[in-house]
Structures are given as structure tokens and as C-alpha cells.
Design a protein that fits this description.
The chain is an alpha+beta fold. The protein has helices at 37-40, 42-45, 69-73, 88-92, 105-108, 115-118, 183-187, 206-219, 271-276, 288-300, 320-330, 353-362, 370-376, 378-395, 397-401, 414-428, and strands at residues 22-24, 76-81, 95-98, 120-127, 134-137, 141-143, 162-169, 173-178, 189-190, 192-193, 196-197, 202-204, 257-260, 266-268, 281-284, 307-309, 315-317, 440-444, 450-455. It is globular, with a radius of gyration of 21 Å.
Length: 498
Amino acid sequence: MALGLILGAVLAFTGGPSNTTIRQSAVAAGATASPSASVSGAASASAAPSAVGTSPSASASPSAAASAPAAAANVSCDIVVPASPLSATGLATPYQLTGTGGMTPAQSGCTMANFAALGAFVQATILDPATGKLSTYEPLVITQGTQPAVKPVVPTLPAGAVVTVDFGFNGTNLTVVGANRGALTQGRCVNGLNGSIFGQVAFCNGTGFFQAVNRAEAAGTLTVPAAGTSAATGSPCLTTRSFEMIDQDQSDNVTSTYLLNGNGQTAQDNAANEAAVAGSQKINNGSDNLLLDAFLDPIMGCTPMEAPDLSNAGTMGTSQALDEIMAAKDATAPIALVPENDEMVLVNDAASTAKTNLYRSNVGQAPISAANNAASSPANYCQNTVNVQTPFLAKNQTLLTGGPTPVPGTGDNLFTFMANRLNMSFTNLGCQNFGLTNPVTVTLDGNGAAIAATLNTTQQKAATTGAAAGGGNGTRPAPPVGGRKGRPHHRLMNPSGA
């Protein structure tokens, strides 16, 4: 749910979770009726992604489902996870996107042709425990009832491979469903706690993967590159745990890219498929990771951590898990960890230690403790966001103004996008309840996009006791009307919410 900065129309993750955290399905994959032509046809494909493959803003999102008002309003989908999802065969078996509660893709609008509003994306990161070598793979998501435009590549995995699978969604609530009764157990898949889902994200074997990564580092078989120093600013390069770039819901969504043809079919994004799928467009999941890897790193002269992509002939690629590995190794204090006032980890709009720790463990972060609460308790997270990110944006305004915007509907360049994202994150995190003042004033155009921003860099101190602390006692105000990041069902960074 991270204000979805990165690349898409920041899908705002609304508050209420869907009915269940995880569901098993005994129905064979592909058993439901295929979507109607009006949903999977070329209508959606006509809306090309914005800069760097980002999805268009709300006003420009695909209109394939426009003829069905109920589907147009829907923000929730199911994704069917194949059997043995951590195996080579499971990775190469397409995941299927469909509606919730028995709705078909056509009825719900849950189609990959409707990617900007309800597209789902999957990404795997793989560790060879014997050598410490890492690789990535991008499992394909198709609309249930359709076939891939090109059959996915079957990866060759090392013996004893430890695999994590991360999910990203451009809607609000994605629920993982097993293709058979054992699929989710086999994959150790979670997307929430006791019926309260995270929202736009889910994980399979994240906790086990990061434990294996830590063992490999300790054994000296895995060497993680340093984040380095920015050639443009002279300051440390950013990571996904840098307060300079986080938003209301950090460490979410993936960097996967698919190809979409005019019939609404998808294929893995690789050189062979680009040649084979004529007239295809690249689609992606807006995410904090994509914001960092594709927008901030390039303009700052920094390099993200990469590994061979087994779905793209070994071409080097990024992943959500790789970003977290680098952040764990080389983040600069104060270090931002998923806080309890992040909307993704709330339960019934109240803070939950258990749900926060479950999320953290699946992105390689330490559980809540007195030590890391010094930076990432709800009050301190808000304080650090204000006191660290605001001066960073002010100091680098000229540099960032020269960068492309990830989401034109949020800001007209990288600076106004980041400033408006900070503005909305402040509100969505309930930072005003800790006696803090929003440091950003934005000027909006007629479409609601920021075209200018004024920053107040005065350092502030959060209240941690008494009524002013508000959310510090396990509660927080309801999200603002209009969706999670103050945008109607669009995340700041991602097409769905980074």
C-alpha cells in the first residue's frame, strides 16, 4: 500500500480488508468461464503506460470495464496461486486473476487488460544456499479463463533453492487463493492476519527466505553490495528503508513487468517475447521499489542491487526482495521499518503488533522492539518522515525537478510528485495526532496534480504521551475520504499504490 509512489497512479489502499486472509480452492485452474471480449479486448490496451512503464493516472486508466458500473467500482480481486509455487514448475505455471465472491473477471473487472486499476503482478527471488548466489524470476499473471500470449519460461533452479514470492496489486485488496488445497501451505503463503489482509500485497515464504539470506551472509557465501554514495548529491544512496523516500506504507509491491497484447493476454517481458508478441505494451505494478530503482537511483547516480532474471535469459534485474537485502545491509540511520500506523498492518483501523511483525518478517525486517521503535514507532516514524524527508526534498529540489514524474496525476515532475506524496502520507499516517504539522503545501492544477510545492524544513518534535499522541495507543483516525493516499483508489507511486 505504500503510497504507491513509484510508478503508478498511487493506488490508495482503502481501510477495510476483504473477507478472508487466505482461501483454498479445489477448483482446477482455469475452470471458470473466460472473460468477455469487452473486458479482454484492445480497449484497455490503448492506454499506454506513462514514463518508464508506469501505469496511467486515474483519469487515463483503461476503460474496458466502463460499460459495467459494478465492475468499474470494484477494488478487490482474487489471485489463484498454482500448486507447489516455490518449485520450478510452480513458478512457470501462470497465476490467475479473477473476481472475489464468485464473480468472474468480466463481472468484477479483474483482468490484466484492466491493469492500471486492478492488475496483479508476481515476483520471485531465489537463493542458492550452497553458493550464496541470487537470481530473480517473474511468474506470469493471466486473466482467469485466458491463455498466456507466450508460454512462460521454466527456470532451472539450484539444488535446495530457497525461493520467496512477492505479490503486488494495482487495486486495493488482493486475496490469495490456492489452486488446490495444498498450494498455499506448500508455498507458506500469507497475505494478512486472521482475516485482516495487508491489502495490495502478499508473500510466499518471505520469512524463510530472509532467514536463509542472513545465514548465507553470516557464512560469507553471500556478499551484498554497498548502497554507495550519490554522484549527484554527495550523500549516501537511498534504500527502501531511507526516511528520505518512504511513504505511508513502505516496502510494498514489486518491480515486475509483463507484456500485454491487444487481446488482453499477457506474456513475460523478455527479448524473445517482445519480438513474438506484436504490438504489445509493457505494464507494471507501481511500487516504492520501482520508484527507487527506476526514478531516484538513476537521477542520483546510484545503482540498485540486481541479479540474473531467469525469466529473461539471465539479464540482470531488480526485485522487491533484493531492495530489502541491500537496505538491511547498508541503510543509513535513522532506519525506517514498517510502522504500526501503516494502513497495511492495521486491524479494524487499530494498530496490531502481530500483524506488523508478520509483515516485517516477510520483507526481512526485525520485529518491533524498543531499539527500532526509537526510529519507527508511530510517533517517531512520523517525526522522522517530517524531519528527514522534507529537508532532503528541499535540498535536492532542482535535481528532482529535472526528473520525470512516476505518476502525472500526482505531480508534474519527480519533485512535485515526491512532495505531494509526502503531503498525503502525513495525513494518511495520522501524523497530525502526534502534535506535528504537515510540512508541505502543494499547488494543484485543475486535475488535482501538484505543479508546485512549498516545504517548511523547521524541525519538529512528536508528542508521545497524552491526547496529542493519538495513534500511539493503538488507534488511528480513519483514512481520508477518497481512498488510501488521498487519491481515489490510486496509490501515489504505483498504479495502485506504492
